[in-house]
C-alpha cells in the first residue's frame, strides 16, 4: 500500500487559496470525561464530550509583487478548507472548519536567515467536517462539532 505525501496540500480561507503556505496542522480532540460508578468495577471509564479542533499554519512572507500582508486578521473568523491533496485530484480530501485566529507570530530568524513567515494559530469556531479519504467509515464524518 502506498503512503501519501503532503506536498500537494493547500489551504483556502473564505474560498481564497492562501499562498505561499509552508505547512498546516490540525489537532482534533474529543473532550473525554472520566467517571467511576458502581458498574465500572473500580476502574475509570470515559464518555466523549464535545469535539474541538485547533491548529496552526505558516504563511511565508512574499515580496515578489510587494504583497507582504498577513493573510488573516487578529481575531478574524474564516471558513477554512485544509486540503491534504490537490483540489483537482480524483478524490479531493480535506477538512472544512470554521476558525478564529488566536495568535499571529512573525518568525524572523536573524541568525540563520531562514525564510520570513507568519506563524498563525487558530481555534475551531463551530462544526467541522471531513471529506474524501478523511471520512471515517460508511457513516461519513467522525465529528459533529468543533
Secondary structure blueprint with pairings:
Elements: E1 10-13, E2 16-17, E3 21-35, E4 45-60, E5 77-83, E6 94-107, E7 117-124, E8 129-131
Describe this structure in words.
There is one protein chain. The protein has a single domain (6-134), classed as Elongation Factor Tu (Ef-tu), domain 3 (Beta Barrel). Helices cover 0% and strands 47% of the residues. The protein contains no helices and eight strands. The chain has strands spanning 10-13, 16-17, 21-35, 45-60, 77-83, 94-107, 117-124, 129-131. Strands 1, 2, 3, 4, 5, 6, 7 and 8 form an eight-stranded antiparallel sheet that branches. The model has no long low-confidence stretch (mean pLDDT 88).
Amino acid at each position: 500500500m502506498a503512503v501519501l505525501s503532503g506536498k500537494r496540500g493547500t489551504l483556502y480561507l473564505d474560498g481564497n487559496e492562501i499562498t505561499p503556505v509552508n505547512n498546516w496542522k490540525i489537532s482534533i480532540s474529543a473532550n473525554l470525561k472520566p467517571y467511576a460508578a458502581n458498574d465500572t468495577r473500580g476502574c475509570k471509564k470515559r464518555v466523549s464530550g464535545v469535539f474541538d479542533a485547533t491548529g496552526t499554519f505558516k504563511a511565508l512572507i512574499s515580496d515578489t509583487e510587494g504583497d507582504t500582508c498577513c493573510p488573516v486578521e487578529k481575531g478574524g473568523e474564516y471558513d477554512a478548507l485544509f486540503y491534504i491533496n490537490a483540489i483537482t485530484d480524483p478524490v479531493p480530501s480535506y477538512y472544512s472548519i470554521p476558525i478564529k485566529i488566536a495568535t499571529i507570530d512573525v518568525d524572523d530568524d536573524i541568525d540563520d536567515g531562514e525564510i520570513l513567515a507568519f506563524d498563525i494559530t487558530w481555534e475551531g469556531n463551530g462544526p467541522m467536517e471531513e471529506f474524501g479519504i478523511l471520512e471515517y467509515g460508511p457513516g461519513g464524518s467522525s465529528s459533529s462539532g468543533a
